[in-house]
Specification:
Blueprint: H1 3-14, E1 21-25, H2 29-38, E2 42-45, H3 47-53, H4 64-77, E3 82-85, H5 97-105, E4 110-114, E5 116-118, E6 127-128, H6 131-144, E7 151-156, H7 158-162, H8 165-177, E8 182-187, E9 205-209, H9 216-222, E10 226-229, H10 232-251, H11 264-270, H12 273-283
Parallel strand pairs: 1-2, 1-10, 2-3, 3-4, 4-7, 7-8, 8-9, 9-10
Antiparallel strand pairs: 5-6
GO molecular function, one term: lyase activity
Organism: Herbaspirillum lusitanum
Keywords: Lyase
């Protein structure tokens, strides 16, 4: 699919009211291709995994120029739509057009911007952007996009950071009225509580959790249109690499690490050696 077809496909999935679509997070092109080969329909990448691969915490240090290269590479090297975390948009409303243009030009299928100013992933008191200021950012993003199928998603952390579902409902509805294509809610614990007020939200809802206590079936029953599983691949990679390093350092015997070591042929298939071989057959080696 080209980038326009991917965006149309993402909209179709977002508007599916019968099933919550899982959106798997990738931290590099290799993990994105594994996700694609597994059969998942949508990719995601964001500030947490981008910061983690650079050894940085997700506390506002990750900027647009950190995220863009990864988003561009994944969009270019896979056939799946990709949603990208654009943090707060990095600019105020008058300048936020640049964020939209850069991610559109990178071939991605949509971005989300959030209303958190400070406090995410920390123990400090959280600060949320004023609702109307966030609405202005949403309006500016919608006006800036060139492809009407490029998704503008509005994230609110009012539940995650303030445990305030009523404020979250009010904010998400305001963001939808401002032109957002979907509202994005972050939960601690079970997302099943969404069912209590889903009918009061006036558009598609995307969810995620910081501790993943639900299944896709439970998220579907709660009324979520999509659920973002942002950390699963990088958490899995972290645990496996750490285990291999610790085991090999202590035991000094790589032969005992077979459960963690993939067949080289499998990796070669994932990183397009097959394309190279076909090109040699077609064009020759010189």
């Amino acid at each position: 699919m080209d980038m326009y077809q991917k965006r149309v496909r993402l909209r179709e999935l977002l508007n599916n009211k019968n099933e919550c679509t899982p959106v798997m997070g990738a931290y590099d092109v290799l993990s994105a291709r594994i996700i694609e080969q597994t059969g998942f329909p949508v990719l995601y990448t964001g500030s947490f995994v981008t910061g983690a691969t650079k050894g940085l915490p997700d506390v506002g240090l990750v900027q647009m120029q950190d995220l863009l290269p990864l988003a561009r590479d994944i969009a270019k090297e896979t056939d799946l739509p990709i949603i990208c975390d654009a943090d707060t948009g990095w600019y105020h409303s008058a300048n936020i057009w640049r964020t939209v243009h850069e991610f559109e030009a990178a071939g991605t299928s949509g971005i989300h911007i959030e209303d958190t100013v400070f406090g995410k992933h920390t123990e400090f008191p959280p600060v949320l952007l004023e609702k109307e200021a966030m609405c202005q950012r949403i309006r500016a993003c919608v006006d800036a996009r060139k492809d009407p199928n490029f998704l503008i998603i509005a994230r609110s952390d009012a539940i995650y950071l303030k445990d305030d579902p009523e404020d979250a409902i009010d904010r998400i509805n305001a963001y939808l009225d401002a032109g957002a294509d979907a509202g994005f809610l972050v939960f601690k614990g079970a997302i099943a509580s969404l069912a209590e007020y889903r009918a009061r939200i006036k558009g598609p809802v995307i969810v995620t959790s910081v501790d993943f206590q639900d299944s896709i079936d439970a998220e579907t029953a709660a009324g979520a249109n999509m659920s973002i599983y942002w950390p699963l691949t990088i958490f899995a990679a972290f645990k496996a690499v750490r285990q291999v390093c610790e085991s090999f350092y202590k035991g000094r015997d790589a032969s005992k690490l077979q459960e963690y070591c993939f067949d080289e042929g499998m990796i070669n298939q994932t990183i397009s050696y097959d394309r190279f071989n076909k090109n040699i057959d077609k064009y020759g080696a010189v």
